[in-house]
Write a structure and sequence with these properties.
The protein is of the alpha/beta class. Helix content is 35%, strand content 31%. Strands 2-3-1-4-9-5-8-6-7 form a nine-stranded mixed beta sheet, with helices on both faces. The structure holds adenosine monophosphate (AMP).
């Protein structure tokens, strides 16, 4: 049997490397699921687990909702930041896992007069990966923005004159400090969510339900209030 065929019969979980993978592992462990390999070491994109019917695929964080939406993965873990940009089409979002916590913030160069720059009717050059959320945030303030879409190293943009402000994820604040930037506004708190393909939720309900419940139990230690599964 081909690997694609085998995968369509079992469950496929989409994760991204780094924070989300590292912080999902303990939840998987509490659900009795052990991952056979470390993707940072093995470089494999399909990882086996101790459960023959469950595999993990490693994809870019912003691609997790796409894999789940199209059913290439039955479920996945994605940040609220990524989900807001992607939209909810084809996705069921039952659990806030309270992992990969950070905030989406506005940051500027230390010497930039932000209060003056956001006067009603002002015009601001904003660099971000999160163009929808950033646009909405400044629209509410009546600030006109020229959005500059970037895919990484946002902190560089104000330093080289590409933008006045950035909208980016901040955790410890170390990256901003190291680059002479300051956080001037927090737009929202971000955590990662479990998302499920809507068709899988119906067709693989019997297989999925125990895993989803185990995730829910493991994450309830973090005081979450979720929809009923
Ligand atoms: P920090 O220096 O700890 O404030 O982290 C900031 C850097 O890490 C920025 O480049 C962010 O884009 C990235 N970052 C922080 N938290 C997260 C997260 N939960 N998910 C993805 N990227 C993050």
């Amino acid at each position: 049997m081909s690997q694609g065929k085998e995968m369509s019969q079992g469950l496929v979980l989409a994760l991204s490397k780094g924070r989300i993978f590292d912080q999902t592992l303990p939840l998987l462990r509490e659900a009795g699921i052990q991952v056979a390999e470390d993707p940072e070491v093995s470089r494999k994109l399909i990882l086996a687990t101790n459960r023959p019917d469950l595999r993990i695929i490693i994809v870019r964080a912003s691609d997790v909702p796409t894999y789940v939406q199209y059913g290439a993965a039955d479920f996945g873990v994605a940040g609220k930041d990524v989900l807001q940009e992607h939209g909810n089409t084809g996705l069921y979002q039952p659990i806030d896992l309270h992992i990969a916590k950070c905030r989406l913030s506005v940051a500027v160069r230390k010497d930039f007069d932000y209060a003056n720059a956001i006067r009603q009717g002002a015009r601001l050059r904003v660099a971000s990966k999160y163009v929808q959320v950033a646009r909405e945030h400044f629209a509410k303030k009546g600030v006109h923005v020229d959005m500059i879409k970037l895919y990484g190293s946002m902190e560089l943009a104000p330093l080289v004159g590409l933008a006045d402000v950035i909208v980016d994820l901040v955790d410890t604040g170390n990256t901003l400090r190291a680059n002479g930037l300051v956080e001037v506004e927090q737009i929202q708190d971000i955590t990662s969510r479990l998302i499920v393909n809507q068709a899988s939720m119906k067709l693989k309900h019997r297989q999925l339900q125990p895993v989803l419940h185990a995730f829910k139990d493991a994450s309830s230690a973090h005081n979450c209030q979720d929809e009923a599964l």
